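Researcher: Last one for today. Full complex below.
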Amino acid sequence: MSEHLLTLALILVKLGLIFGVVLTLAAYLVLAERKILARMQLRHGPNRVGPWGLLQPLADLIKLLTKEDFLPARADKWIFLLAPGLAAVTALLAFAVVPFAPPLSLFGREIPMVVCDLNVGVLYFLGLSSLAVYGVALGGWASNSKYALLGGIRGLAQLVSYELSMGLSLVPVILMARSFSLTDIVLAQEQAPFFLLNPVAFLIFLISVAAESKRIPFDIPEAENELVAGFHTEYSGMRFGLFFVGEYINMIVLGAMTTVFFLGGWLGPVLPGVVWFSLKVLAVSFVFIWMRGTLPRLRYDQLMHFGWKVLIPLALLNVVVTGAFLLWRGGWA
Amino acid sequence: MNLWRDIKGTLQPFWITLGYLFKKPVTIQYPEEKRTPFPRYRARIVLTRDPDGGERCVACHLCSAACPVDCISMQAAEGEKGRRYAAWFRINFTRCIFCGLCAEACPTLAIQMSPDYEICNRDPLNLVYEKEDLLIDGGGKDSTYNFYRHAGIGVVNPRGGNEDEVGPVDIKTNLP
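Model: Here's the assembly. Have a good evening.
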């Protein structure tokens, strides 16, 4: 009995820890993005609130919380109210399967540093990442606004073009690790991280993940200069804030997934596992920000072209080649 | 489709943005750092004085006539010896567009543009400047210019008595 209670307590502690860290990180990622983008454009970025603008996330939070919570006329009330939560919650839930450090031995107990080491972790992640777009689609649908509707439709159109190649780019990873569990995938990268062994899959995954995060080269559902603000045009206050913070949590989660699948998770010399993991996640996040500072937005037919005619054939080919190679050698090791 | 060109065109910008990341921002952080405007920058209008210390303005109304937004108003008055001056002189800076036409129109170089650009205010009424607010001690851009010293009018010296002037001719001496 007490064994169960202890496990439950440990899970709750880990949950609280992850909640705190991920939400804080998401808030500061906003600041980091604004700062880095500004420096890439030879500006300073926010530097008025607190030293170097470090209190800016707090100020943003206060602003968002005190804004009017606006409900457009003839909007689909319940869906409208629930959609932002869906966007943020699916992003947060995906973090449950991410192993962020090697298992810890404490008081003779082996504590896995993951909230829930599902043996179908990869599928769980893929399922949640496709659910995340429901927030966009429903929010856009319920707003009773043409811009939001167009944004939602574009979100779905985008989903069908990147989701398949993202799933297919993970097949070689699963083939090489011989497991769906994220912990096993990390452990399989003991000798060499998968992005060295299978750079094509890594590249496809990175591009798909950039599309999944709905950030600038692929921010087609938002498309400021075409659709006002896309699917969240009609949202204000903290509901907009939830969409917004969901986007950044998503960025962290996708960074964590890239880290786990291709960059070797917590594995690394000298430094402890958590530090390596955080460094890799932050590095991927930086690449996302860098991408935003560099590339223009694709047209949505260009994205569909790219997804269906380039990424998916390439990913399929990669699956075949990797599979054949593994069959021939009997495993990559 | 030139694949190599496309790949290069996608990757090259990344190096450029990375390079910019380590450059110094060009922003001038206004309240702390202020840029020094150029001497001919057109901001707050001033009324200048002679080298002798008298007001240059002769209340000729040319500036208010030139003003496209009608922000200058004044009342002309005359001192002893016919010295004209403005009894009151008012510039409404809430209307002023800092075009500098008044300074161009001024025959005595009295009204001039100064580079002092920090005149924002929360109360628009504080931006209505009276003569006392506009007058400065000094000649501004052409500090040696002194209108009545070569105007041909007997205000400082008798008519034609200034050093670059010729005295009035007695036309009767030209008669046959």
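Chain B touches chain A through 14 residues (CB under 8 Å). The mean pLDDT of chain B is 87.
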